[in-house]
Amino acid sequence: MKLKLDLHDIYNKGDQIDRALRGIIDEAIRTRATEVEIIPGKGSGQLKKKVLRFLDQKEIKALYHRIDKDAKNHGRLFVYFRHK
């Protein structure tokens, strides 16, 4: 199962971004999704950096397996999960 989160609509609302990211991570764990696609968009790269900082937090990092950046589209990230 694959989930998708597009952040274009809330790109300038920091608290909503954190809630949306946490929500999609929690949903991936609850539904045992193997992959989450996060779309921060291309722009200046600030939103992508914010997403990566969020994902790099110790308590969040413990929840997923790895992150890949899309080689063909730098406005997209993939977060992969391993469920036991």
TrEMBL record:
SUPFAM superfamilies: SMR domain-like. This is Smr/MutS family protein. Pfam families: Smr. Residues 5-82 form the Smr domain.
